[in-house]
Specification:
Helix content: 25-40%
Structural class: alpha+beta
Largest sheet: 5 strands, mixed
Radius of gyration: 57 Å
Number of strands: 27
Amino acid sequence: MITDGTSIGTNTTVVDGTVLVNGAKGVSTDPTEDRTALKESRSIHVGNGALVKTADYLVEDRPFFVSIGKDGLIAALQKLDQQLRKSGRTCILSGKRPTDWIGKEITPGRIGFINHGGLPKILTRPGRYPGMPLRNWWARKWCGTKGLSDTVIEFQGLTVVQVSQNQAAVVSDPQNQIFVIKNAGFVSYAIEGTYNVLAIVDQTHLPHVIEDRITKVILGWSYEVTMKSTTRDGKDRDYVVATFLNIPANNCAILQKGDDLELLPAGQHYITNPNVTLLNQLEMPTKDIFTRDQVPVSLTIYLKWQLVEPLKLTTHGYNTPYDALRYEFADVRLFAVDYSAMVKQRSCGPDNMDDCTDTSSAFLDALRTRAMDDLHLAALEYGIVMKDLAVIDRQFKGDIAATMEKLTTRALQAQVEAANVDRENSNKIKQEEGSLAVARVHAQAQNTIADANAYSVVAVARAQAQKLQIEAEAQAQATRLAAEAEAAAVRLRAAADADVADTFAREMELRRVEIARVQAFGSRTVFVPTEGMGAQMGGAMAAGMAVGMGADARR
């Protein structure tokens, strides 16, 4: 039996076979499997290892059996070879010497094997072993190489086993005695019988999961090693010779040997004693609970407890605290509570445990006083301390109870429907409030955008006006400067012309002006003088042409 204590709030550990709960002896556990109660009395051993303790097989000296020490496999093979030589038997180490040019190759870290007439020969030195001369290979056959660190090597009666920290080798000796090798190794030669390696077990990854059938919580892992044995009818059958357990923290296992029980703490364990078994028993039915008016009722309750003495629980024949509490709760009679009170009150918990104003508080008071007190006193006998109790659901039995259950169910349905309508109305109100809030946010966003656009337009107009003003001022300033420059230029030219005193030069300047005027207006331009007699003739001619054009127009 493996019990679980991971779901209890107190800190629980198991140290050196002693169960500790916050410094005191005990262990926390949760409900797991159902089983029937055992009636016989049993003696209790608290984790002293008497049922699982086995002698160290490697300590005792055995013929042709050598432990692998710090010097490694080669040194162990040499020691075994010396034992064979002293006993007058054929040695197992070959005397061949390697070369470096031709032959069978053995690399460093490996050893070679030769079948010499059915007997093993081992080549331990790396190199090449040529096939010549022929006498060196007479009645011999090359059988390949193996690694010096291989876990299991078996060849022609020679057995080598080496396991690491996380491995365990289950071995059967020539007398079919089972022993387990952990973090060690050995070399043996089958003179008086073979050493058969039954299994190499990974202790942290055992294949079989042990879980709670009720809560489906993983309680641990196990693995059974079997050995084939031939019976007198000639058939081979498998027999369990070793059991490995991996128990998580805060869990423990209960072992049984006859009438003796032992608590196995958390950790990695193995059992090779055939008289020791892991407890596992059957399911037990419960009884009905009756109210004061003799109405049977089935309760679904929530219990919180602390297991402080696991072996006391197992001594009374229970597999888990759940089994013991369920059996004891069946003896509780709620005579102080009638049927109507239990109909009104469906649950008992932290929210209504102290409320005594309700008419249905009799049911709560009965559970809080009589049921809880009775369970607490009964649980102490099994090493259990009760922490809390609450009713999750109840089912009444009988015709009257069935009728009342239907009425109660209808009332509850009406309450549920009303609550659903209220919830839907509340949801709709919240949705409308949410829509209103969203519209308000959208309006504020639109106002913000309009303010930003207006400010942008005003800023653009102000910038445009400032631009036109600056351009006009610049144009006026440029015109003024150009006029002043032109006037200055005219004055300078006039002053220059006035300074010319030579008549010929003056005449040449007039001619140059005339040429420039003709170039400007073209060679066919007729220039009419505006002064003197020519100017008067031009005016008379213009007046005559105008009179003529007027007479023509009147016709």
